[in-house]
User: What shape does this take?
Amino acid sequence: MLTCSLLVGCSDSSLFSTVEGKVKVDDKAIPKGQIIFSPLDGGQAVSADILDGLYRAKKVPRGANRVHLNAFYLTGKTFMELGIEYPEEKNLIPQKYLMGIELNISEPLVSHDFELTAK
Assistant: This one.
């Protein structure tokens, strides 16, 4: 089993899970974003899109993961940097969650909702 986990392309289904659920901030679904599962043991991170508050990530390594959420939107403003004008973006994810949320994954299919609050 140890040899299998060290090889690239190993597909032992007992090592991975599918994780799905909802992402909301103050009871409002995230319209568009990304969710990233990073194993705390240093394994490969897995990402998935968030669309209309829903996500489904496949091949998430089992065990302790740090989950990072991103959901940027255009503010309608611009800013200048080195003489170039860029559109301003803001993250819908409240500051207190930006360092990640720890989640332990142990089952083949995990349903987990992220109910975030700005306060």
